[in-house]
Every structure is written in structure tokens, then in C-alpha cells.
Amino acid sequence: MSTPSSQIDVGTVRSGTSRISQVVTIVAVVVPLLGALSAMGLLWGVAFRWLDLALLALFYVVCAFGTTIGFHRYFTHRGFEARLPVKIALGVLGSMTVQGPISQWVTDHRKHHALSDKPGDPHSPHVGHGDGALGALRGFAHAHMGWMFSNLGMEQGREYGKDLYEDRVVRWIDRLYLVWVVLTLGLPFLIGYLAGGGSIALGIEAMVWGGLFRIFLYQHATFSVNSICHMFGRREYRTRDEARNNWIVALFVFGEGWHNNHHAFPASARHGLGRLQFDVSWWTIRALEKLGLVWNVRVPSREQMERRRLAPSES
Q1: pTM for this one?
Q2: Residue 174: which of 97, 92, 110 has the closest Cα?
Q3: Is there a contact between 222 and 67 (Cβ–Cβ < 8 Å)?
């Protein structure tokens, strides 16, 4: 079923983000920010230990794979097939980044691909923001965070999510979304509490660094794919949008910054298509494939890549 052109700019199932969703977004974005500020302003040099650093790094990496490998390359684009335990783990870890349930994240992202940088794209920095430097600034702000207060969750319908709503595992993970949010903060607290010999203060300290501050860092790294990677970087392949490759973003989101590559070959489980294009998510998928935990891994052929490759003067 196609969406009537008159309705493309207002969404498939609702005309705007619900009030509940706006409140949840404020909590999900502002609370980690407060955690980050408290960590930098109050705890720096006073309450930051090797355990806190280890928890920050561990939860950042593992939960990031939940979105880069799970929400994005698996649930959205079906770049590979996965065994049930892997599917569940990816869904839970992705939910622990506090970027919304699977069905919301995936349907919004599928609409982005269907209408990328065109009217109806939930978070394009190029459409409807005005001209000149001020228009570019407004577009950047909208793509980075602003869209979540106006367009988030508009696509939670069967137009872009039929397979999700028919999937019992996805429905189960989504129903328990708040459990995963509690877990993403509770686990660092518990580890800090136990490692500190039952100290609540050390548990809270670990939760701030391994929970709130980590969520804040990864959220903005992910947001940068929508903003930076549609405005700054190089284009290597022919696409119908402004998606660009940005190696700095790719470092922080484990390969997602090779965004022009991804828009050229959306179903590919590999985003870093060049020899020197850092893509830890792809290396992890390859490792899972060798272990027999995922299969039918999709990547473009050399012939497909050459057909879409831009000349140096076009990039």
C-alpha cells in the first residue's frame, strides 16, 4: 500500500509526535544530559575510577551493537539472518540505548530511506528549513534532535512495519521496553554497588558514568548520523539524497558513519566498503557468521559497486 502524496509530509498513522512521546523524549535526552553535567562538573577528579571507565566503555560498545547491528542492519534492513538468542540479544541491547522500542526506531528509519532528503523524511536537514546559513543551522538542529519532538513515532503502523507487528519476539521485546531502560541504568549501579562492598554512593557513581553519561554520549553519536552525515563528508556512490561518508562519525558509531555507502546499498550488512573504512559492526557480524550464529549475510558485489561509483569530480 502506498501513502497518498498529500499525506506524505504528515506521516502514515498520525499527524505528529504524541505528547507522551514528547515527554518521554525529553526525559530520555535531558536526564542523560544532566548526568553528563553532574559527572563533568561535580564528580570529575573526585568520583571517577577505573571501574567507572570500564563500565562506560563496556556498556557503550555492547549497547551500541544493539542499534548498529541489531536495530539498523538486522531489524530495519534485514542484512542477515540470525539465530533466536542473537535476535533477542540485539533487540534488548538496542532498547538499552534508550532510543525507543524496535518498532518505533525501525519504522521511522524505513520512512527516512523511502523519502530520504525529500518532503516526508522525518529528519532531513535539507527540506523545509529555509535558505542560507540560518536555514542550514535550523536544518542541522532539526536533523540532530529537533525531529524527535515533531516527527518521532509517526510511522508506527503497517506501512513500514508489517513484518515487525507479525513478529512475536519483536512484540515481546517492545512490550518490555521500560524494563530494558531500567536495566541499562540498574546494571551499572549493581556492579558498582557490589564492587564497592555494598556502597550505595559507589553504585550511583557507576550508574552516572556507565549509565547516564554513556547514554548521553552514544545518543549524540547516533544523532550525528542524521545531521552530520547528511551535510558534511564525501559521496563515493550515486544516491538520490545527500547522504555522505564521515570517518569521524564512523569511529564513534562503529561504521554507521559510512552513510553514503549505506544509502547506496541499504540492505548491505557491511557499510565500510573501502579497504580503510573502519566498520567494527561489520567485523562483528563476520565473526558471528563464522560462529554459525548469523547467515545469509548480504553485501554488494564488486560489479554493483562499480556501477554506482561516482567519478572523483562528482564526489
Answers
A1: 0.85
A2: 92
A3: yes
